[in-house]
Amino acid sequence: MLSNDELARWDRDSFMHPSTHLAQFARGEAPQRIITGGEGCHITDRDGNRLLDGFAGLYCVNVGYGRTQIAEAIAKQAHELAYYHAYAGHGSEASITLAKMVMDRAPEGMARAYFGLGGSDANETNIKLIWYYNNILGRPEKKKIISRWRGYHGSGLMTGSLTGLDLFHKKFDLPLAQVIHTEAPYYLRRPDASMSEGEFTGYCVRQLEALIEAEGPDTIAAFIGEPVLGTGGIVPPPAGYWQAIQGVLDAHDILLVADEVVTGFGRLGTMFGSDHYGMKPDLITSAKGLTSAYAPLSASIVGQRMWDVLARGTDENGVMGHGWTYSAHPIGAAAGIANLKLIDELGLVENAGTVGAYLNRRMAEELGDHPHVGEVRGEGMLCAVELVADREARRFFDPSEGKGAKVVAAMLKRGVIARAMPQGDIIGLAPPLCLSEAEADQIVETTREAVREVL
Ligand code: PLP
Fold first, then answer.
1. Which of 268, 288, 294 to probe ligand 1 with, by most ligand atoms within 8 A of CB?
2. How far is the CA of 155 from the centre of ligand 1 (A)?
3. How remote is the C-alpha of 215 from its chain's centroid?
4. Cystine design at 425: which of 213, 360, 387, 443 (Cβ 3.0–4.6 Å)?
5. Is 90 exceeded by the pLDDT of residue 60?
C-alpha cells in the first residue's frame, strides 16, 4: 500500500481539484484529506479519523453511506448491462423504471423526466428546452433568463452565469449576456432593518417587476430559483415569497424553473421543495438526492405545458438534437431505483422533516442569542448559522477575517464536518436525511463549542 506521504505527493502533483486554490494546493499549503470509507452519517479518512458528515458530502448522500442495497443494485446492473445509450428511443429496464418512479413522485402537472449526469447539465438542458419552446411558439426574442444574486445553479457556461456568486464569475467572463440577476430573498440582509418579512417580500417583488419592465417582458423567457437558496447561504424564503413571485411570472408569461438539485427527493421534509412552498414550476432540476450520489445522475422534469410544445416542435422539425452519451445511464438508473426505494422504506422524507426541525430548534436554542450570531435559520434537513460582528447594527465581519471558516475548522477538530458557505460567514449544515436526534445533538453541541472557541 502507498504511504500517506506518497499519496499526498501524487495528489499535489497530478490532481487538479475542483473549486480549490490551485497554487496553494500544489505547494502543499492547503489541507488535503483522503476519504476511505463511510457508514451511515459518518466517513473515515486515511489518517484514521471518523467524522460525522454534517454536509452529506455536498448535500447529496441523502440516504447515508454504506448502503448495501444500492451497492448491490449497481453491481447487478454492471454485470447485466453496464451501458446502452438512450438515443432514438433506446432504453434499459432500469432507466424506464426510474423514469416512472420519478414521475410518480413529481409534483402535479409534470409530464416527463429527461436524465443527465449532474445538476449543471440538467440546468443546461432546461435552458435549452426553454429556448426551443419559445422558438416553436414563434417568440425568438423571448430568451433572457432571470436568476437571483446568491443563487447557485452550477458552474458551466450558462449555469455558471445563472449562479449569482462572484466566485463563479470572476475571471471567467461570466455571466453571459442572456442572464440577468435580481434581488436575493435574504431577509437578514434586507436593505432596511425596519422591514417586516412581508414587506421584504413586497420589496423583492417590486425589484423583479422593475427588472422585467426595464428589460421588456417580451424578452424574458424564464425565472430560475432554488426553493431554499443553498450555496448562497442556506436561506429559506421570506413569508409569501413564492406565491408572490409566481403571480408576477404568470402575469408576464414567464416560465418558472425550480432548481431542486438540493431540495429534490426529501430534504425539506416533502418529496420536492415545490410541494413545500406551493410552487408551480414548468421545469424542475434534480440530481443529488436522486441517487444519493451513489452514481452520477440528474433528472430534468418537464411540465405538461412545455412537453406539449416540445413534442409539437419535433413533429414540425424532426428529432430534437439534444443528448449526452451518458443520458439515462443504466448504472445511474439502477442506483436511483434502489435509492428511492430505500428513501420510502426508511421513511427518510418524514425523518428529514422531524429530525431537521429538531436540529434547527436545538441550534436556535443554543446559539440564537449569541451576540455574534445574526441568525439561525433553516428548513427541513438544512440549517445555517450566520455570524455577525454586531448583531444589533447588522454589521457583518470583514471577509478577510475568515470567521466562518475558523468555526468550521474548529468543528472539524471535534469530529463534525460543516461547510463554510462561500459568501459570508455562514456555517452550513445539510446532513444525510437519516440523521438521528443523538447525531443532531452532537452537531449542535460541536457548533456551540466551536463558536465559543472562535468568538
Ligand atoms: N443547482 C443547485 C441548486 C446546486 O446546489 C448544484 C450543486 O451544488 C447544482 C445545481 C449543480 O450541480 P452539479 O454540481 O451536480 O453540476
1. 288
2. 8
3. 28
4. 387
5. yes
